[in-house]
């Protein structure tokens, strides 16, 4: 691949998804796009760049961005946020007016494991939520991932990552070597295509936002913009969960770390904000 | 802290070696047994912290060992994780009600064993 082709493809990915591909990610283009190139009968990445420079290449560009979106996921990934959520949900349930659902956003939900882990956590609280309805919104850039998440069907390998076997038995139905999330859990989640670069206000307000291991792919100005948007739609007593390697330091003063917790952030009180 | 111990029970030498390599990688001292009777003898000689247990084996199968171990050593110790090609939900429930703490459906890899060992408290959660 020529540097010119790489820069063109990386530019297209940046504009469409916010994901920054540095020059050392050339290998990622090769491995992630192989299947798509074969399917489309395109000889290589230079040929792909050529095709995408031509008019009417919209569908192909969308397909490329989907193929490059990182989809690594497991149930109860990193554990800690879900333990925190377990303590937080009863407090939120007690603080909300009667009839108002608790709304939770799984941003960049990939194949849905995070959203279903949230649903399992909420169902597990049972009476502690005093019958409070929990509404989960899973969004992702990739239509293919949303379709997978909506079906809630996972391989034997996937259901063994992070998911205690008691929960597997309780919340999944077996179909041969595949496992489908039970209908009552699937009914708790609605799935929607959404690009984190777009204005999220259309999604409504949330009590809790999971936005983990996504920002690492963005450049600093994009991170700042996304974090500010998350802060604007999370409830004053709600939280935003970020990935373990992510921070708000130097990016926004609208979210502050919850004292004593890792990866848990809350909206800054106006008085605490500087500038 | 003293080194944690694990007994790998499987009639396949290849599986035992693969499991041993993974579990030693987590810092455990590993012993092996090729059937349930050998496993029971090994437990009587010295009770391990954890047992990774195949289901289908000659002489004494895994579920028979599991019931015998629970009757003899109590419900919590050692932690027993099934590791078998038996992947029917009915089998999983049978093993759990016989006192297994976790269940691995083969094939497995280091990530799955680490997750399951963490869930049963044999490994600490990595921060």
From TrEMBL, chain A:
Its EC number is 2.1.1.80. Residues 1-266 form the CheR-type methyltransferase domain. It catalyses: L-glutamyl-[protein] + S-adenosyl-L-methionine = [protein]-L-glutamate 5-O-methyl ester + S-adenosyl-L-homocysteine. GO terms for biological process: methylation. Pfam families: CheR, CheR_N. GO terms for molecular function: protein-glutamate O-methyltransferase activity. It comes from the Bacteria. Keywords: Methyltransferase, S-adenosyl-L-methionine, Transferase. Signal peptide: none annotated. InterPro entries: Bact_Chemotaxis_MeTrfase (IPR050903), CheR_C (IPR022642), CheR_MeTrfase (IPR000780), CheR_N (IPR022641), CheR_N_sf (IPR036804), SAM-dependent_MTases_sf (IPR029063). SUPFAM superfamilies: Chemotaxis receptor methyltransferase CheR, N-terminal domain, S-adenosyl-L-methionine-dependent methyltransferases. This is protein-glutamate O-methyltransferase. It comes from Neoroseomonas lacus.
Automatic annotation (TrEMBL), chain B:
Pfam families: Response_reg (PF00072). It comes from the Bacteria. Keywords: Phosphoprotein. Signal peptide: none annotated. Residues 5-121 form the Response regulatory domain. GO terms for biological process: phosphorelay signal transduction system. The modification 4-aspartylphosphate is found at residue 54. This is Response regulator. It comes from Neoroseomonas lacus.
């Amino acid at each position: 691949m020529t540097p010119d082709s790489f820069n063109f493809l990386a530019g297209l990915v940046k504009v469409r998804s916010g994901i920054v591909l540095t020059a050392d990610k050339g290998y990622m283009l090769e491995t992630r796009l192989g299947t798509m190139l074969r399917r489309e009968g395109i000889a290589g990445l230079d040929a792909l760049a050529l095709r995408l420079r031509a008019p009417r290449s919209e569908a192909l560009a969308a397909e490329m961005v989907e193929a490059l979106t990182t989809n690594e996921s497991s149930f109860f990934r990193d554990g800690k946020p879900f333990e925190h959520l377990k303590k937080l949900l009863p407090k939120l349930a007690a603080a909300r007016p009667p009839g108002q659902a608790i709304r939770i956003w799984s941003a960049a939900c990939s194949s849905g494991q995070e959203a279903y882990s949230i649903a399992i956590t909420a169902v597990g609280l049972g009476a502690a939520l005093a019958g409070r309805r929990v509404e989960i919104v899973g969004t992702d850039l990739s239509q293919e991932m949303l379709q997978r998440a909506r079906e809630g069907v996972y391989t034997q390998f996937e259901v063994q990552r992070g998911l205690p076997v008691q929960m597997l038995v309780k919340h999944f139905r077996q179909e041969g070597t595949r496992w489908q999330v039970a209908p009552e859990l699937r009914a708790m989640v609605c799935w929607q295509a959404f690009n984190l670069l777009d204005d999220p206000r259309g999604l409504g307000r949330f009590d809790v936002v999971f936005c983990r291991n996504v920002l690492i792919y963005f450049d600093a100005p994009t991170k700042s913009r996304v974090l500010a948007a998350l802060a604007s739609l999370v409830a004053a007593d709600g939280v935003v969960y970020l990935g373990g390697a992510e921070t708000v330091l130097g990016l926004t003063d609208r979210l502050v770390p919850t004292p004593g917790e890792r990866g848990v952030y809350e909206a800054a009180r106006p008085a605490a904000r500087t500038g | 802290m003293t080194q944690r111990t694990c007994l790998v029970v499987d009639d396949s030498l290849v599986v035992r070696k693969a499991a041993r390599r993974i579990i030693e990688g987590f810092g455990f001292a590993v012993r092996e047994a090729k059937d349930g009777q050998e496993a029971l003898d090994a437990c009587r000689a010295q009770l391990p912290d954890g047992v990774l247990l195949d289901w289908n084996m000659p002489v004494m199968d895994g579920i028979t060992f599991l019931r015998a171990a629970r009757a003899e050593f109590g419900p919590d110790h050692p932690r027993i994780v099934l590791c078998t090609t038996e992947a029917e939900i009915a089998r999983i429930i049978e093993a759990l009600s016989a006192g297994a703490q976790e269940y691995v459906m083969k094939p497995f890899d280091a990530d799955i064993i680490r997750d399951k060992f963490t869930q049963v408290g044999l490994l600490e959660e990595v921060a």
